[in-house]
From TrEMBL, chain B:
Protein name: DUF1116 domain-containing protein
Superkingdom to which the source organism belongs: Bacteria
Protein source organism: Bailinhaonella thermotolerans
Length: 510, 472
């Protein structure tokens, strides 16, 4: 198709050259237009038009020229569009109007905007988390770092930096905290009260705070330290700080410390510090022997289990003596088929997995695990269970590039189904963790898996025992009572707490 | 902490913020993204120097020096007389960070070849290019000599320069004369008409302007720029009002010095025919204000942004004479008829000194017509000016913007804020053809590339022993 060129002159119509360039660009974008130019008819501009192949135009410097080269129809459309656009009057409402809302990208901007901010909750990818924490501390904020995979030297850096400024750092790898009644990260809805918690373990803290709530008491503050705080390198900077802060808090009458086994020297420092306080301190160092730290007395009470530490704290808050930690309550034994021999634990809470392994050991069961406690076996292939196996599905081995199973329980449901399908499996033990941060509906998929597993086992002449613990409260968004009722309806034996569930499951295992 | 109302900044998972709000708490969730172009090492270095007292103190000093500078137009003289290093030397200055001849962009090579012929060091641009390649001629960034030039920024010893004196510090800054639009040396043109114009500017025009400028006995430039901002200029890509204001001051002095009528007529015609005549004066004024802020140890304030047609470079007060460089960002703009993106040279020139000083793109609210280059509205112009406040140490109360309720223009770019927010300084710019001599082919808006700023953050951290590799 051959091109034509046409122009139109608008006499004595001055327009700013920038506006005209914008119009030129709009015309040139029309399909079928090769070149378009809208200019004032100055000598130089007319020369430009000629050089651009837009032809000879006879116009004066005060005239506006629209010149177009292209297919016939396109040229007509372009001239029409130019005519419309040149006739347009500015609407006048393109002005600024209300001040545009400021986009807050950085901590500094947020504090400028609202100087009342006093805590930063950081859940960015691990490689950036320490940097955000340092910035927050410099701005005078306390910090909770939910992120994991923060290099240890950076953890030490931010904790020391915070100490110099009299600020608190919770984390890195701090999953839960309740500060002034507000849930931070994964946390349950518990009443406020007089028991304070400092936890190096997220689900451990959730278990203690929810049980305290269930027993009718409440939480003053639940502080997290992150899982590496009680290492020899970090030296419990955060736990010691949290301990002193709670001891000085008038609302806190009893303090609970919870951790997986700390480095021994660090544990000693923490216990010694606890003994100097006026407030009774319940200590739960899972898997550690209290005798190594001088045992009970001088304001310190050791508990073996998470639930036991909550029970002890509640008793102490009420001026009572902590009760003995109870063994498994009575339960109905299931008749397994010959060949059904093993306990299989499928956990979303790392500390629940850890505690279950310890209690199974008490019952003589040495399990394999992707996160084995001392005396247990490391699983060669985390995808394949062997013998008694107790898994933490929230461990890095399972969560690379996907959400934690407390957020998205599908991998837990699938693994549970796989374990139940193994003819050697007798007892399936699992946890359900409720609260803010956890899945809105943590059990619909789970119940479906249990239904399928039971149906298949029935067809194959097997009977399965499902034993569970639901960590949460009736005030949680997911409502613990409702969840427990649905599980029981599906034939699951729901224990009162994780320790009991583990003890029952171990006891049932042939 | 227990006695206070908890007020959380949520950095990361938005759901955590929602939970806090659902539970009745106060929370602000950031629109966070990885700082420092996602480099965790630089992000950590940045965090270590964020709010660092040494840097805060240094920035106070640097910013105060910038604010208290009083640029005054004092003289016109040949570059070879004004700039000591050029006296009697075959030295040619160019825009942007240092660059060797063989790596220079087309327009810069063209301008240098033109300058060599203009100086009489070679008979033709071709011979001039050979001479330039031979190593017989020295090249140096104008910035290294207190000078700045738009586009190629080429200044040779015989060219006249504006002399701007900072009355506070006594420091001097220079810029060449603006040749107008079309085929001009700064876009790499070096034909006979270009050289003829340069000769006239360096003789008749300079000789007429010198006594006139001297007669003014120090023309204060900050008030003039402030006035131009109220008249629709941002004194980078729009200088129509400022040129008029300058002429208003110059003309009586020019007449009073009694030049020949024909000379006066040619000078007046030349100045009135070029809306950008003031640009180079504006640039020298900005250079004077920013050199006043340079060299304060540990300061994170940017004192120069400039492009050599290949790289964009910045200098920072606390890191001495170092340049932090990266390839220039593309220009979002409009082209003259017959030209497009493929014809454009990379962003070029020292004129981003205006943005560095809080003008140009930073003052875009004063000159909404400029945003039309990118299809924007006056609201976009004010948004640009407002956004720049996120990355500056403060504002310059002398440069007020009517559209921001006469609020002051953002000034004193802090490299830390740029790296933390990811907001890149906005720059109004002309677009040169990539081939020498074609000239300007468009104009638009661009930004300063982030890698310059991340490098500067690393260097500042290093200066305090806080670089990413260092144990804190």
């Amino acid at each position: 198709m051959s091109s034509i060129r046409e122009h139109r002159i608008y006499p004595n119509r001055y327009q700013d050259s920038v506006a005209l360039m914008a119009l030129s660009a709009a015309l040139a974008e029309l399909p079928g237009v090769e070149t378009a130019s809208v200019v004032m008819g100055t000598g130089a501009n007319l020369d430009n038009l000629r050089e651009a192949g837009l032809g000879e135009v006879d116009a004066g410097p005060g005239d506006l020229v629209v010149a177009v080269l292209g297919e016939e129809e396109a040229v007509a459309r372009a001239l029409e569009l130019a005519d419309e656009r040149l006739a347009e009057q500015p609407s006048g409402d393109a002005g600024d109007g209300a001040v545009a809302r400021r986009t807050l990208r950085t901590l500094r901007q947020a504090v400028e905007e609202n100087p009342a901010h006093n805590l930063a909750l950081i859940s960015v990818p691990g490689p950036y988390a320490a940097a955000e924490a340092l910035k927050a501390l410099r701005l005078g904020l306390n910090v909770m770092v939910f992120s994991d995979n923060v290099p240890l030297d950076q953890e030490i850096e931010i904790k020391r930096f915070a100490e110099e400024r009299d600020l608190l750092v919770m984390g890195p790898d701090c999953g839960t905290a309740i500060v002034n009644g507000l849930p931070l990260g994964f946390a349950n809805v518990v009443r406020r009260g007089r028991i304070g918690v400092v936890g190096a373990s997220g689900t451990g803290t959730q278990e203690i705070t929810t049980r305290v709530h269930q027993l009718g008491e409440g939480i003053s503050q639940a502080l997290g330290t992150g899982g590496h705080d009680l290492s020899a390198e970090v030296g419990a900077i955060s736990m010691l700080r949290g301990l002193r802060a709670l001891a000085a808090d008038e609302e806190t009458d009893v303090i609970v410390l919870v951790s997986k086994p700390p480095a021994e020297t660090v544990a000693k420092t923490v216990v010694e510090e606890a003994r100097t306080l006026d407030v009774p301190v319940v200590i739960c160092f899972l898997g550690a022997d209290p005798a190594a730290f001088g045992g009970d007395g001088q304001g310190v009470h050791f508990a073996r289990t998470l639930a036991g530490s909550a029970d002890a704290a509640v008793a102490l808050a009420r001026g009572e003596t902590p009760p003995a930690e109870s063994a498994a309550p009575p339960y109905d034994q299931v008749r397994f088929a010959p060949g059904q021999r093993y306990l299989r634990g499928v956990f979303t809470g790392g500390t629940f997995c850890y505690e279950a392994q310890l209690l199974a050991q008490d019952a003589g069961i040495q399990a394999a695990s992707n996160t084995p406690v001392a005396g247990n076996l490391a699983l060669a292939d985390v995808r394949a269970s062997t013998g008694h196996t107790i898994l933490d599905l929230g461990d890095d081995a399972f969560t690379q590039g996907r959400p934690h199973p407390m957020i998205d329980p599908l991998p837990r449901d699938e693994r549970l189904l796989a374990e139940a399908a193994d003819p050697a499996t007798a007892v399936v033990l699992f946890d359900v963790v409720l609260g803010y941060g956890s899945a809105d509906d943590p059990i619909s998929g789970l119940l479906k898996a249990i239904g399928e597993a039971n149906a298949r086992a029935g067809r194959e002449g097997r009977a399965l025992a499902f034993v569970a613990h639901v960590c949460g409260t009736d005030d949680d968004p997911q409502d613990r009572s409702a969840v427990v009722a649905r599980l029981r309806e599906a034939g699951v034996l729901v224990a009162e707490n994780n320790a009991q569930a583990a003890a029952i499951a171990a006891g049932m295992t042939p | 902490m227990w006695s206070e109302h908890l007020d959380v900044v949520n950095v990361g998972l938005a759901g955590f913020g929602d939970n806090i709000r659902d539970a009745g708490g106060s929370v602000t969730t950031l629109d966070w993204r990885p700082p420092a172009l996602g480099d965790p090492g630089t992000a950590l270095a940045l965090a270590r120097i964020a709010g660092h007292p040494e840097i805060e103190r240094a920035n106070q000093v640097a910013f105060e020096r910038y604010l208290s500078a009083q640029p005054v137009l004092t003289d016109v003289m040949p570059a070879g007389e004004a700039i000591p290093a050029m006296a009697g030397e075959r030295l040619i200055l160019h825009s942007g960070p240092p660059i060797a001849w063989d790596r220079m962009a087309g327009p810069v090579k063209g301008a240098i070849a033109g300058a060599i012929v203009f100086e009489g060091w070679a008979p033709t641009p071709e011979k001039a290019a050979e001479l330039a390649a031979s190593g017989e001629i020295s090249f140096s960034p104008a910035h290294h000599h207190g000078a700045v030039g738009p586009m190629a920024g080429v200044i040779s010893p015989s060219m006249p320069v504006w002399v701007v004196r900072d009355a506070t510090s006594g420091r001097l800054a220079y810029s060449n004369f603006n040749e107008g639009l079309g085929k001009v040396l700064r876009f790499g043109a070096n034909g006979p008409e270009v050289l003829e114009r340069l000769r006239w500017m360096s003789t008749e025009l300079a000789q007429a302007l010198r006594p006139a400028v001297q007669r003014l006995d120090g023309l204060e430039l900050k008030p003039l720029i402030g006035q131009a901002l109220h008249m629709g200029d941002e004194v980078h890509n729009r200088n129509a009002a400022a040129t008029g204001l300058l002429l208003k001051r110059l003309l009586p002095a020019l007449i009073a010095t009694g030049p020949d009528n024909a000379v006066l007529s040619r000078a007046a015609e030349f100045i009135t025919g070029n809306d950008h005549f003031f640009l180079n004066v504006s640039m020298a004024a900005c250079k004077a204000m920013l050199d006043a802020a340079a060299g304060v140890p540990h300061s994170s304030m940017v004192t120069a942004m400039a492009r050599n047609g290949v790289n964009f470079g910045i200098r920072v007060s606390g890191t001495g004479d170092r340049w932090f460089q990266a390839p220039a960002n593309p220009v979002d703009g409009l082209f003259f008829p017959g030209y497009g993106v493929a014809d454009a040279a990379p962003d070029l020139g020292d004129s981003a000194i205006t943005e560095t000083a809080g003008l140009g793109g930073f003052a875009m609210a004063a000159s909404p017509a400029i945003v039309k280059f990118v299809g924007g509205t006056p609201a976009d112009a004010t948004a640009h000016s407002r956004r720049m406040r996120e990355i500056t140490l403060g504002v310059n109360p002398v440069f007020t913007l009517p559209a921001l309720d006469f609020g002051a223009s953002a000034a004193g770019i802090d490299v830390r804020s740029v790296v933390d927010t990811g907001i890149q300084p906005v720059i109004n710019t002309g677009i040169a053809h990539k081939e020498a001599g074609v000239g300007q082919i468009g104009a638009g808006v661009t930004t300063a590339p982030l890698p310059c700023f991340t490098q500067a953050v690393d260097a500042l951290a290093d200066g305090l022993g806080l670089a990413a590799g260092a144990a804190a």
